[in-house]
Amino acid sequence: MKICVLGLGYIGLPTALLFAAHGADVVGVDVNQSVVDCLNRGSLPFEEPGLGDLYSEAKSRFSVSTEPEAADAFLIAVPTPLDPATKVSNLTYVKSAAGMIAPHLHRGNLVILESTVPPGTSERVVIPRLEKSGVAVGDFLYAHCPERAIPGRTLSEMTGNSRIIGGYDRESTDQATAIYQTFVRGQIYRTDTKTAEFVKLMENTCRDVNIALANEFAQLAEECEVNVWEAITLANKHPRVTVLNPGPGVGGHCIAIDPWFLTENSTRCRMVSTAREINDSMPNYVLRIARGLLAGIRDPTISILGVAYKGNVADTRESPAFKFIQLAENEGYAVRCHDPYATKFTHPLMDLPEATAGSDCVVVLTDHDCFRRLDPATLQVRTKFVIDARNILDHGKWADQGFGVRVLGDGTPVQQTVPGEIAASARLYPADAARPIASPPPSSISLLSPNGREGFL
Ligand SMILES: NC(=O)c1ccc[n+]([C@@H]2O[C@H](COP(=O)([O-])OP(=O)(O)OC[C@H]3O[C@@H](n4cnc5c(N)ncnc54)[C@H](O)[C@@H]3O)[C@@H](O)[C@H]2O)c1
Ligand SMILES: CC(=O)N[C@@H]1[C@@H](OP(=O)(O)OP(=O)(O)OC[C@H]2O[C@@H](n3ccc(=O)[nH]c3=O)[C@H](O)[C@@H]2O)O[C@H](CO)[C@@H](O)[C@@H]1O
Questions:
Q1: d(CA 403, CA 417)
Q2: pLDDT < 70: residue spans in the chain
């Protein structure tokens, strides 16, 4: 079996390597020459736990190119970004990938779309472009097989998760199922292409709405001067309640985008767009807290800890840090950023001492594990304020070092946080107490539920 995988990013590369490691001959195709050069040098274009070992294992059956070639199966894993101005999906890359496959497509070949797309895209956009080959769908096989793996645990989820296979017809579903069964240990569920497209978007929209609810709870709790972290922990003791974690906003290439794909053609949606609005407003809310702390300080400097969209990853796509920084700079604050994982960002990334030197407020935006262990005694700040927008720091330790500690959702009225103090409710419910961990989590796990339940990431 020869498989041609178009798009060697966070999804396409691990998928291509898994196929190769399980016996297929794989040609990985990427239009970005630097990705191809990087792989040809034997390096990886990004980091993901286990990917280096998998690359070594798969190397002998894996080659890379900027052009597709004839194969038994083609898999499309190219980006599907959101147009920021219109909030409509940008299908340019998917269209181009289908157009690149067409000249190589033959009767009996299988084409799989893994990219996340609005419902109906396979039928309306992808299949017609593939048919320009002169082969009609039915004579070639087609399936939409959305990816569910979570960055930071991509390989274990790609192999262990259940999958949805949405075939154009029975034969397409059978063939696609057979290919995935070479490495997927999870259950495979069969459906049609449009339902598969819809299911993927529902999954991420469900998560976005639930995070929005947690973020709204955080704001409501503060209005009531209640610590939301304690409240969530207790609410989650109910057997049928699972509240997620509030935070500074929702980023990444999926959760912040896919709800718009689901609703882009709808005139009915209310809850989905409201959830997007709430999550997108969280940087404003965190900045409001900073504004309260920094009032009266001349030429204030904010130090951002974490610009990646979530803990223990380098990816900054759609990170809430972008909006927070832009708002902070518009407010007249100087901003200095530190992130031990991220390499690409709009602002210079500094090491920790440089990013915090002379700072008036440290703001934790990303839940990298290394921040949990940070020793505040080593920081040469000017004013000792810290805002923990992820509830991950050892708050007692920071307060002992003279920091005024403000945790997102801790219920402290802004004006009551003074240097050297920790909010009473935050002291009552420090991060470690709020998130008991029964056994050490895998290093890639960054978010634990307040009650430490599995499946909470
Ligand atoms: N990253 C995730 O966690 C994740 C999870 C599930 C689903 N998805 C979906 O998978 C798709 C890919 O996402 P990603 O994060 O891997 O993207 P990515 O940006 O990491 O990688 C995509 C790659 O495709 C290449 N490319 C663009 N056009 C091409 C073409 N015509 N032919 C060949 N290569 C081309 C780009 O150069 C890039 O290297 C998206 O639709 C995304 O929504 C992503
Ligand atoms: C349904 C689902 O699980 N889908 C996953 C998701 O992967 P992801 O990495 O984008 O997802 P998250 O980890 O949820 O992060 C998103 C943002 O939400 C913030 N967040 C999270 C939890 C919380 O309680 N409070 C928060 O504030 C977090 O910091 C970050 O900014 O989409 C992928 C692509 O489709 C899927 O493949 C993958 O299965």
A1: 10
A2: 413-457
Query: In the prediction, which pLDDT does 3 show?
Result: 98
Ligand 1 contacts CB of residue 452 (under 6 A): no
**Predicted confidence (pLDDT) per residue in 123-135, tens digit:** 999 999 999 999 9
pLDDT value for 433: 34
For ligand 2, whether the C-beta of 147 sits within 6 Å is: yes
pLDDT of residue 435: 37
To test the pocket of ligand 1, the residue of 147, 313, 444 to mutate (highest count of ligand atoms within 8 Å of its CB) is 147
Q: What pLDDT is attached to residue 422?
A: 56
Q: Is 151 in the pocket of ligand 1 (CB under 6 A)?
A: yes
Q: What is the pLDDT of residue 413?
A: 65
What residues form DSSP beta bridges with 338?
305
- Ligand 1 atom at minimal distance to the Cα of residue 154: 3
Tokens of 404: 């005024």
Ligand 1 atom at minimal distance to the Cα of residue 115: 41
Assign 3-class secondary structure to 395-444. HHHHHHCCCEEEECCCCCCHHHCCCCCECHHHHHCCHHHHCCCCCCCCCC
What residue's CA is closest to ligand 2, atom 24? 245
Ligand 2 binding pocket includes 302 (Cβ within 6 Å): no
Query: What is the number of residues in the chain?
Result: 457
What Rg do the C-alpha atoms of the chain give, in angstroms?
A: 24
Question: pTM here?
Answer: 0.91
Other C-beta atoms closer than 10 Å to the C-beta of 224 total 10
Closest to 391 in 3D by CA, of 444, 446, 443: 446
Cβ of 447 less than 6 Å from ligand 1: no
Alpha helices in 224-357 (DSSP H): 228-235, 258-263, 271-280, 282-294, 320-330, 352-356
pLDDT of 323: 98
Of the listed ligands, the closest to the CA of 204 is: 2
- Tell the residue number behind the tokens 């997620």, with chain if given: 244
Q: Identify the CA nearest to 183 among candidates 3, 47, 8.
A: 3
